[in-house]
Design brief:
It comes from Pseudoalteromonas xiamenensis. It is an enzyme of class 2 (transferase). Methylates the class 1 translation termination release factors RF1/PrfA and RF2/PrfB on the glutamine residue of the universally conserved GGQ motif. Belongs to the protein N5-glutamine methyltransferase family. PrmC subfamily. With about 280 residues, the chain is α/β, with parallel strands linked by helices. It folds into two domains: about 5-70, Helicase, Ruva Protein, domain 3; about 80-280, Rossmann fold, CATH 3.40.50.150. It is about 40% helix and about 20% strand. The protein contains eleven helices and nine strands. Strands 5-4-3-6-7-9-8 form a seven-stranded mixed beta sheet, with helices on both faces. A two-stranded antiparallel sheet has the order 1-2. Helix 1 (about 5-15) crosses helix 2 (about 25-35). The N and C termini lie far apart (about 70 Å). The structure holds glutamine. Glutamine (GLN) binds near residues 190, 203 and 211.
């Protein structure tokens, strides 16, 4: 079996992905580095180095999977979020850069040392664990309905040495026993079941239950906002991720339920993405 050099493998995989990915070169780099188990600098410093036969055939198998549409994060089993490594699998949403805006929004608030924070629909645990890592003194609780997600979040909790984070299984607020929080965050499912975006790209490989909500995508957002009134401490706030075109409806819903200081924040792409509201 003949093998390619690093530079040849990179050029080959990039061209294989040109028709199926928005980021063919980046995808090729990530898969190649995963196969050779080296840091990124290796691609440039060692571009003439020859792949081993086992690496060549491993790369060919992964390139074939990517060409079938499988997300890069599922192939490598990891994704970075808030500069931390997270294990990822098909049982949850793949953490997205948009959601880092939610973490940033919470960190921008002046909050006490003993802040009690709740993350609903935690998935990989990306939001809850990133915040717990920034503020080890906070008491963080994360909930997910899927027991596979809970298992994955617990695996990430252990890998990040954040064992004090409380991870529970259940539907939204259901596993709580009347606890109240200074902060409630969530990136719930919010896509309209009819949205054609669901037939394209990585979302085809992610669980529908993490993406889609009834009532044009609003059902879970409304439930979280409405029930949140029982679970927020006076002066506590909620920060929710939502679709780029859902900010006005979410703003009005918060206002109708007597939340105050309602504010929408844009993601890095300039889209309305997070709405924050305070419970008086
Ligand atoms: N922002 C994601 C997407 O459009 C959806 C995330 C979600 O439903 N919570 O792919």
């Amino acid at each position: 079996m003949s093998t390619q050099s690093i530079a040849q493998a990179l050029a080959w995989a990039t061209s294989e992905f040109s028709a199926i990915s928005d980021s063919p070169k980046l995808d090729a780099q990530v898969l190649l580095l995963h196969v050779i188990e080296k840091p990124k600098s290796y691609l440039y410093g060692w571009s003439d180095a020859q792949l081993l036969e086992a690496q060549q055939s491993h790369l060919e198998r992964l390139v074939a999977r990517r060409k079938q549409g499988e997300p890069i994060a599922h192939i490598t089993g990891t994704r970075e979020f808030w500069s931390l490594p997270f294990y990822v699998n098909a049982s949850t949403l793949i953490p997205r850069p948009d959601t880092e805006t939610l973490v940033e929004t919470v960190l921008a608030q002046a909050l006490p040392e003993d802040t009690k924070l709740l993350d609903l629909g935690t998935g990989t645990g990306a939001i809850a664990l990133s915040l717990a890592n920034e503020h080890p003194s906070w008491r963080v609780t994360a909930i997910d309905y899927s027991s596979d997600a809970v298992e994955l979040a617990k695996r990430n909790r252990q890998a990040l040495a954040l064992e004090h984070v409380n991870i529970l299984q259940g539907s939204w607020y259901e596993p709580l026993k009347g606890e109240q929080f200074n902060v409630i965050v969530s990136n719930p499912p919010y896509i309209d079941p009819e949205d054609p975006h669901l037939e394209q790209g990585d979302v085809r490989f992610e669980p529908r239950s993490a993406l889609v909500a009834e009532d044009e995508g609003y059902a879970d957002l409304f439930h979280i906002i409405s029930e949140g009134r029982k679970h927020l401490l006076p002066g506590g706030f909620m920060a929710l991720e939502h679709g780029y075109n859902q900010a006005a409806v979410i703003h009005n819903f918060f206002a109708q339920l007597a939340y105050i200081n309602i504010l929408t924040i844009k993601d890095m792409a300039g889209c309305d993405r997070i709405t924050v509201a305070t419970w008086p």
